[in-house]
Write a structure and sequence with these properties.
Blueprint lengths: L1 E2 L5 E7 L5 E4 L25 H10 L1 E2 L5
Parallel strand pairs: 3-4
Antiparallel strand pairs: 1-2, 2-3
């Protein structure tokens, strides 16, 4: 998940059990409240670099089950 300065999701990649990666953006979500405190210690283990996120985003496909 890529999170903006206000804590709202910008882009997201979800990995399905079958190994397919699905990508989505705010246009696919009906609600996008501030979700993440970017500075909370609990999130540190989940932080990845921009390069790794971009690689996953490029690999991911649009989920046909979403609008």
């Amino acid at each position: 998940m890529e999170v903006g300065h206000d804590g709202r999701r910008l882009r997201q990649v979800e990995l399905a059990e079958d190994g397919i990666a699905y990508r989505s953006t705010p246009e696919h979500w009906t609600f996008n409240p501030p979700l993440v405190d970017r500075y909370a210690p609990a999130w540190v283990p989940f932080v990845i670099g921009q390069e790794e996120f971009e690689a996953q985003w490029t690999r991911a496909v649009h989920d046909p089950g979403r609008a």
